[in-house]
Amino acid sequence: MSDPLDGDVRFENEGTLEPLPVVRERTVVMRAVGLTKIYAAVASRGGSASKGSTNQGSARPALELFRGLDLKVHAGEMIAIVGESGAGKSSLLHLLAALDTPTAGEVWCGEARLSLFTPKQAAEFRNRDVGYVWQFHYLLPEFSALENAAMPLLARGMRRAEALEKAQFWLTEVGLGDRAEHRSGELSGGEQQRVSLARALVTEPRLLLADEPTGDLDGKTAEAVFSLIQRLHEAHGLTSVLVTHNLEFAERCDRVLKLREGRLVDGRAGDGRV
Amino acid sequence: MRFEFFIAARYLRAKRRQAVVGVITGISVIGVAAGVASLIIALAITNGMRRDLQERLVGSTSHVDLMRVAGDGIRDWRPLLARLRGVPHVVAAAPGLYGQVLISKGARSGGGLVKGVIPADEKTVGDLLQSVVQGSAAALEPVAVAAAPCGSGTSARNDCGGGVSREIPPIVIGQDMAESLGAKVGDGVLVTSPQGELTPLGLVPKYERFQVAGIFKSGFYQYDSSYAFLRLADAQRLFSEPDLISVISFKVDDLYHADRVGRAIEDAAGKGFQTTNWMEQNRELFRALKLEQVVTFIVLALIVCVAALNILIALTMMVMEKTRDIAVLMSFGVSGTQVRRIFLMQGLLISVIGTVLGLILGYGLSWLGGHYRFIRLDAAVYSIDYLPFAPRVWDAVIVAAVSLGVSLIATIYPSGSAAKVLPAEALRYE
């Protein structure tokens, strides 16, 4: 039996004469413990937002996205995080990718505690351990698809020829081996997102984080991209956390977690549907 | 660094989303090039003028002068002269007797400095006697004695300065002095020495009549308006100082080591002697030239500063335009330091391109100016009929360093602000 929030898979050795069950747990790739994220109030000129005055102009009140959120991500699983817009799904991914820091709580990646990272270590972590796919492709328009895909490797100082060779492999994996020299403006939306996926995977990261990777695509293209992610996940034994609004895609993941009122809850109903 | 250069170079080449950024970048490159070229040309001109002035000045006068500390003149100077000619790096030496006089012709008169010389020797240490434009300096040669260096050690020839003509002795004066006196070659002038003779009537100034044998023009007002040459023996007679000289002038093999050779000459001459060299004698002039050069450099460096301001604006706008890309770069592990370097390199690339273009332009124009002398000057005013250009490699190094340094300072703010981009914040509202 497995706990949908914990995700630990237990196999009991039934059918043997052994009196005690043998429990095997999958490796935890990432763990978030007691995560809290509160965006501080932003005061307008000459006033304090916390006073709750209606004359705050551009003031932004304090915003609590989640409080005491826990999460375990196991090696090889594909997790879908769903929730309403503004629930904090993207912010959660930012915290997992060390792109942002939590107000409280900790994120662990293996034995590394992200809050202890220096800016340089955080950059190295993003470069080596995390592949990030955004809702929009965010390819750099001045560079070819191949250069875009190779960018994380070039950034870490890998030889250009080697980096381009690896990037070419991943472009082929996402079905764009013959579009390597095309710039992002010469690619369709789906192709751009596939290059973005190749860029995220070129470093062979421990964790793929995708923030609504199909959110900016039409239905057919979205299906193609999601299927691609699924295929690569299985073929390369990836560990993936996807934020999505598409419940159909979410259902196809190993686990579905819903971000509700600042916490993650099991996103599947009793019949297994999301 | 390769990665940062790769990104910076591509950003610089790429078409801009905002055309104005590209325009400002282009203006920055042109601005740096214009500033650097202006600096190179201006420095080449000031160097050329300085070099020309120095060559003529140093050519006109001796490099080192030896005199008595007490100012009492050098007696028994022939063996000393012979000995000092043997000092290492001394090329030539000549005796001379200086004296302040009043030179008059009719109602006109003016103060002057006469130098009693032996022309054959004097010509080896200074060019003034070779700059005679009217008449000739040949009349200064001692009568009935072949022109040969004095004090060469042969006592048989120790008649230097002796055996002069009993007719009106010759004098060679500067052109400006000749004009102020209204004197021409062949005219007689009266030279009055303040070192007078004691007579029953008291101290009477000593005066003697000379005939203008030649008029020289060095191009230096100081010399042309107050210098005059006499035969050494005539000067000694005028100043009532028989067989005494006041100075031994030297030419050395390396004029920039005149001070060092001067000290060696002092040591060789013994106690009671001191030397001055051309650098000390013209210190104020060269200091003024140096100051002019520094001021020119500072004024023109302002052009580079304005260009650097353009770099600052271009980079700031580029950082604003690229905020999203910076955030994306950071999301896959590009560090803040790397982002800073990208924009720093971009600023430096603009500066390097502008500096190289400026150096090529500046040196090209300076070479053309020096080679074809296409800028003509009024020789009567500037004593040279073309604008001299003398570009120096060292100037290029300094100008390039200043240009790159100022540009580097201009990149600090935009590259710093690029490094501070928070990826989550920058992409949250995209």
UniProtKB/TrEMBL annotation, chain A:
Pfam families: ABC_tran. One of its GO terms (molecular function) is transmembrane transporter activity. SUPFAM superfamilies: P-loop containing nucleoside triphosphate hydrolases. Keywords: ATP-binding, Hydrolase, Lipoprotein, Nucleotide-binding, Transport. GO terms for cellular component: plasma membrane. Its EC number is 3.6.3.-. InterPro entries: AAA+_ATPase, ABC_transporter-like_ATP-bd, ABC_transporter-like_CS, ABC_transpr_LolD-like, MacB-like_ATP-bd, P-loop_NTPase. Residues 30-274 form the ABC transporter domain. Belongs to the ABC transporter superfamily. PANTHER family: IMPORT ATP-BINDING PROTEIN, LIPOPROTEIN-RELEASING SYSTEM ATP-BINDING PROTEIN LOLD. This is Lipoprotein-releasing system ATP-binding protein. It comes from Tunturiibacter lichenicola.
TrEMBL record, chain B:
Its main location: membrane. It comes from the Bacteria. Keywords: Cell membrane, Lipoprotein, Membrane, Transmembrane, Transmembrane helix. Residues 25-267 form the MacB-like periplasmic core domain. It is found in: Cell membrane. The chain crosses the membrane at residues 20-45, 294-320, 341-365, 393-413. Pfam families: FtsX, MacB_PCD. GO terms for biological process: lipoprotein localization to outer membrane. The keyword Iron does not apply. It is a multi-pass membrane protein. Residues 298-420 form the ABC3 transporter permease C-terminal domain. GO terms for cellular component: plasma membrane protein complex. Belongs to the ABC-4 integral membrane protein family. LolC/E subfamily. This is Lipoprotein-releasing system permease protein. It comes from Tunturiibacter lichenicola.
